[in-house]
Amino acid sequence: MKNLFLYLALLLLCTPSVSFAQYKIVSFDYERAAFNENQVLPAETHILIQATVPDYITYVEIAVFDAKGKAERRPNMIAIWKRPSDKIVDKISLPLHYKLRGSSEYDFEVSYFTPILAAEKETITKQLYQHLDAYIEQTLQASKSHIQLTRSSRQMLSDLNSIVKKGLENYRNRTAIEFKGFSDLVKNNLEQLEKVNLTSGRFIFTGKSKEEAKSEYRKKLVKDLETLLHSELDPILNTELAKLKDTRYINDYATEKVRRTIAIQGGYGGVYVNGNFSNLTLGSAPYAGLAFPLGRKTFAPKILSNTSICFGAYFTNLKGLGLNNGDLSGPIFKRPTYIGLSYKIYQFINLNVGATFLEDASTAGQISGLGSSVFVRPNLGISVQFQFWADLSR
């Protein structure tokens, strides 16, 4: 039996393995706001979404959300298509680099963007700068000799970021430059403003009265801050912007049902009974049991998807290792019983490590004295593991 499992393992290790990443094509109907003629979506695989787009659409965005959650929840992922600048196309093929879970529902938001004219971009830029400048004017108030912030510098920075993100939420650009927030330079500038003594303005604005110099100095500091804000936004606003033209929202779209499987394993293992390195007492026998993966291969990290919690029993007792050279058996099945972890080392070849519950064959199966008669020893084994499934629906 030992040789049989050894030869089987060597044979499998010599067998080449080739895997291919494949995409399942899914069509999207703009008018019906549906995928694949209202059929369920493929699950646990790569998806390639195909759709037709009018020639005036330059940017398409598909966001995937969990069907259950907060109204303002963030998308699980966003897929983006940009019209090639040197080609005329009326169809798009957009890979969705996000595997959907089976037997689930998702929400989808498909957004279409069209380019804007230079005049419209200028208007957007002007409005956004006006909103920022108005906020700065309201929150930077003059006291006797200092500038007083009506909100903390941290809160101000958060508010300024929100103004920009709100103003640009319906716009995209081809270069994928996103506003990620104002820099630390703006943050430091805000923090320093409260420390400035406005009376020192008399050294900058000579020839003016003390109050006039303070007022002019405040205006200069505010203007410098506004200029800094504008300069950090210029790289984004000077790109080729596209505005939101239309949106299709699909609620609770179902994915295909997935099979629920159970893993059955059979192998050969050894059990440490007692002794030290110079005088070990070991027992071995074939075993079989069930295994439950710690995670699905599609979604869990490799180390989790390849690891299972397993339990089962040996086919035979451990000969001559019990009391008076009798056999070692175990509880429940009157056979040595094991529990542990099983890790896939190659295809369906697994390495098992765990604990074996043993008791002398003369007391096996008896309930009385179970706590004192059963003892635990470590085991190590190799097994083959197969996945089985059953469809119990009618």
Describe this structure in words.
The chain is α+β, with helices and mostly antiparallel strands and 394 residues long. The protein folds into 3 domains: 22-116 and 245-254, Immunoglobulin-like; 118-241, no CATH class; 261-389, no CATH class. Helix content is 24%, strand content 37%. It contains 7 helices and 18 strands. A hairpin with a 4-residue loop joins strand 8 (140-142) and strand 9 (147-149). Helix 2 packs antiparallel against helix 5 and helix 3 packs across helix 4. The longest helix has 28 residues, at 210-237. It is elongated and about 115 Å long. The protein starts with a helix and ends in a 5-residue tail after the last strand. The model is unreliable at 1-20 (pLDDT under 50).
> For the report, how would you describe the main beta sheet?
6 strands, antiparallel, barrel
**What level of helicity do the residues show?**
10-25%
User: Shape from CA axes?
Assistant: elongated
For the largest beta sheet, what order do the strands appear in spatially?
12-13-14-16-17-18
Q: What amount of the residues lies in strands?
A: 35-45%
Integer average pLDDT: 85
Number of helices: 7
Number of strands: 18
